[in-house]
Amino acid sequence: MRTDTGQIVHLADYRPTDFVLERVDLTFELDPKNTKVEARLIFHRREGAERQAPLVLDGDELTLSSLLLDQVELPAGQYEATPESLTIRDLPAEAPFEICVTNYINPQVNTQLMGLYRTNGVYCTQCEAEGFRRITYFPDRPDVLAPYTVTIIAAKEGNPLLLSNGNFLGGGNYDEGRHFAAWFDPHPKPSYLFALVAGDLGVVEDSFTTMSGRDVALKIYVEHGKEPRAAYAMDALKRSMTWDEERFGREYDLDIFMIVAVSDFNMGAMENKGLNVFNDKFVLADPETASDADYANIERIIAHEYFHNWTGNRITCRDWFQLCLKEGLTVYRDQEFSADMRSRPVKRIADVRHLKSEQFPEDSGPLAHPPRPDTYREINNFYTTTVYEKGAEVTRMIATILGAEDFKKGMDLYFERHDGEAATVEDFVKSFADASGRDLSQFSLWYTEAGTPLVSVSSAYDAGKATFSLTLEQTVAPTPGQPVKQPRHIPLSLALILDNGQIAEPQAVEGGEYRDGVLHLTERNQTFSFSGISSRPVLSINRSFSAPINLDFEQNADDLVQIARHETDMFARFQALTDLALPALIAATKAVQNGEEIQTDAALSTTLIEIIGDDTLEPAFRAQALALPSETDIARELGGNTDPDAIHKARNTTIKAIATTGLETLRRLADSAANAEAYSPDADSAGRRSLRNGALSFLAFAEGTPERAAKAYADATNMTDLAHALSVLTQRFPDSAETKEALAAFETRFADNALVLDKWFSLQAAIPGDGALDRIKTLMKSKHFIATNPNRVRSLVGTLAFSNPTGFHRADGAAYRFLAEQIIAIDKRNPQLAARILTSMRSWRSLEASRAEHAKAALSTIAEAKGLSTDVSDIVGRILK
Ligand code: PHE
Ligand code: ZN
C-alpha cells in the first residue's frame, strides 16, 4: 500500500517524458502467488531531451528480478531499483534500445484490487489510474502511448480463457499442462488501458456489423450459469454501437469487443481497450433479480464504457489533471444516449437531481475542486462527481452555447485533430472555438474554477412600455485555494409565459446576448430588457437546467403553480414543483425544531396530487414529481445547522398530509393493473411501475399499517416491485411481523445471489433511526457478510454513511465513531474503497454544533491513525482543514 508521503503533484510541472516508448511486449506466466512478468520496452530518446537524462520508470510494491539492455544484463552501477521506481543511466543518445524488465508479483494477496488480482478464482487487472506500475516498472502516465503485444501463459486447468486487449494473434500448448495465448493491440494506448483476464468463465456471444461493413465479434464473459443474465447487457452494447455511429459518426475499430463481469471491483466498470472489465452488478440482470434501476444502470454504464473507445481511448488524457476531458465528455455522451433510449425529460430530471444531491454539496464543501484541478495528492480521489457529472454539464453548456450544428462541427474537429493523441481540456475547448468562431475563453473558467454560481434574479414589468426587464447577479463563494472568483459565462435558457399560456417572442432584447431562447449572462451584474411583451409574463428560467447553478429567486406561488401546470419544458415543471415543496419542507423542519405544529401548504398538495393524477402525463415524470426532495436536499437548502431528526420528521409529516389529501388518487394509482403485465425493462413499463410504487410509499404514510406493502410483497412478480415493497416495509414498519417475515423470506430465496443479497443488506442498513448502528453491527456478523467484497461493504457501511441520515447522524455520535473504526480497518485492505466511503463525512461542518463536535472527533481519530494510505490521508486532511 502506498502510505502518505505528503507529496503534491502540480499541473504546472507537467513536461513530456525524455524517452519515447515505441513498443511494448509483455509476457505473463500466471500463478496465483507468484506471477512472472517480463516486459520488453523499446524506447528512443526524445528529440531535444538532455543527453544525460536517465530513464525513470514507475513501480509500486515491486521487486526487480532482472534487467537487460539490448539483451545484455545491466551492471549494478547503471541502475537503481526501489519498490517505487527504476532509474537507468547512460542510455543511448539517439538509437532505439530495448529494456527488458523481469519481476514477480502476487495476485492472491492484492486486496487493493489495483494491478493484477484474483476475484473468485479469476485473474483480472485494474490499471486506471496508476495500477500498471503494480504489475511492472513502466512509464505509467497517460501521455505515453504504444502498441502492445501480450503473451499469457497459464495452467490449462482453471484457465481456459486467456484474454488481453486488441485482436487475438494465436495460442496453443506450452509446457507441463500450461497453454498460452497472444494478443496484439495495434492502437497505441497508455498503460492505464491495459487489461488481462484469465480464468474459467461462461460467455455470451453476438456480432455487430459496423457502418463501414466490418464484422465485430461481441463477447460478454460471466460466471458459468449466469449467461442468461447477460442478455440485456449485450442488447445495450449493440444499441450503444449503433448510436455512436449515428449520433457521433464513431465506428468501432477492432475485430473483437469483450466485456468481463467480475464480482470484486472498486468502481462501476473500466474501459480497457477492447476488453472492458465490469463490476458484475452492472452486467447481470433478469426480472427476478434486477430492478428497473439496475437495468437502467446497466444500459448507461455499458454505453459509457463503450463510448470511451473514442472519448478516452482513441483520444486520451495528456495527464490526470485532464481526467474530465474523457469522463465529463463520456458522461455527457451516455446521458444523451439514455435520453434517446428512454424519456429525455425524465432522464434530465433524474440527472439534475443526482447532480444537486451529490455534486453541489461536494462543490460547496472542503473537497470542492474544479473539473480540471491543478494539484492533487492522490489521483484516485479525483474520480469525483465534479469531474464526471459537472464535467458533463460543462460539455452540455458548450452544446447549448454553440447550438447543435456547431457543437457537432466542434466534436468532429476534435476527433480529427487529436485522434491517437493524449490531449488537454484546452485542446477540446479550442476545437469548439475554432469550429464555431466563438470566443470560449471566459467559458473556460467552468473548467478551472470550483464552486457553484449563485444567480440572483429580480424582474419588473412595465405595461405602458410593454417591456420586461430582468436583472441578474452572479456570485461564487470562495472554495479551497480559490478565494476570488471571476464572473462566468452562464447560458440560461428561458421562457416568458404570457397569460394565454403562450411563450412570448420578444421584439428585441437589450443588455446582452439572447439567441434561440438562451440568455448569455457574462457580467457580474446584468440587466436584460425584453420589448414587445404584451402582458406581465411568468418567468421560467434555467429551463432544462441549461446551467449548473443555484438560483436565488423568490418566485410567487401562483407563478410556480402556473409553470408546474403549463410549461412545455417538463424539467421546468418539475423544478417549479420542487420550488413549491422546498420552502414548505423547510418551514416544517423549523416548526419541528421549535416544537410547533406543522402546517402543510395547500397549494403544494393540490398541485402535486393534480399532476400525479394526470393520465396525460408520462408516468415516470409523475413518479419523479411524487418523490419529494430528499432529506439531504432539505439539509442542503437549509444551508447549515443541520438536525437530521427534525428534517426526517418534517418530511414524513408533510408526506403524510399530502397522502391524506390525495388518498383517492393514490389508491387508484397503487391499484392500477400493472401487476398483470409481463415484465419488460423498457422505460415506459418501468415508469408505470415507479408511479405505482411511489403511490404505495405515500399510502403507507396515510394508512399507517403494513398490510398494503405486505400484500404488494406477496404479489410481486419482479425484483422492482419486490424490493420496493420490502423497502416500504423496512422504512415504515421496521419492527412489524410482516417486515420480519418478508426479510427472512427474501434472505432464503436469494441466499446464493450476491447482488440480491447486497440489496437485502442495504435495505436494512437504510432503516432510519438510532437503531441503525446496532442493526448494521449485527449484519456484519451475518454469514453473508464478506469484508473483502467492495459491493458488500458499500451495501452496509456505505448505505449507513450515505443513505441513512438519521441513522448515521445519531445525536450521540456513535455512528461517526463506528465509521472511523471501519475506515481505518478498510484502509488496510483497500484504500480506494475506504477513501470513497469517508467522503460521506465531507459536510460535517454544516451539522448542528454537538453532532459536528462528535464528527470532528471521529475524523481526528482517523487522521491520527498510523500507516494511513495516501487516499484516506488526503481525504481526511482536506475534510478537517
Ligand atoms: N474510467 C472508469 C470509467 O469512468 C472508472 C474507473 C476509474 C474504474 C478508476 C476503475 C478505476 O468508466
Ligand atoms: Zn468513464
From TrEMBL:
**Residues passing through the membrane, by range:** none
Q: Which UniProt keywords apply?
A: Aminopeptidase, Hydrolase, Metal-binding, Metalloprotease, Protease, Zinc
Reactions this protein catalyses: Release of an N-terminal amino acid, Xaa-|-Yaa- from a peptide, amide or arylamide. Xaa is preferably Ala, but may be most amino acids including Pro (slow action). When a terminal hydrophobic residue is followed by a prolyl residue, the two may be released as an intact Xaa-Pro dipeptide
Name the cofactor(s) required for activity, per the record.
Answer: Zn(2+)
Record domain Peptidase M1 alanyl aminopeptidase Ig-like fold: where: 451-553
Boundaries of every Peptidase M1 membrane alanine aminopeptidase domain copy: 232-443
Which CDD domains does the protein's record reference?
M1_APN
**All copies of domain Peptidase M1 alanyl aminopeptidase C-terminal, residue ranges:** 558-881
Q: Which GO terms describe its biological process?
A: proteolysis
Which residue numbers delimit the Aminopeptidase N-like N-terminal domain?
A: 25-193
Q: Which Pfam families match?
A: DUF3458, DUF3458_C, Peptidase_M1, Peptidase_M1_N
**EC code:** 3.4.11.2
Which molecular-function annotations from GO does this UniProt entry contain? alanyl aminopeptidase activity; metallopeptidase activity; zinc ion binding
| Alphabetical list of InterPro entries matching this protein | Aminopeptidase_N-like_N, Aminopeptidase_N-like_N_sf, PepN_Ig-like_sf, Peptidase_M1, Peptidase_M1_dom, Peptidase_M1_pepN, Peptidase_M1_pepN_C, Peptidase_M1_pepN_C_sf
The organism's superkingdom is given as Bacteria
Family statement: Belongs to the peptidase M1 family.
Name of this protein: Aminopeptidase N
Species assigned in the record = Agrobacterium salinitolerans
Q: What is the lineage of its organism?
A: Bacteria, Pseudomonadati, Pseudomonadota, Alphaproteobacteria, Hyphomicrobiales
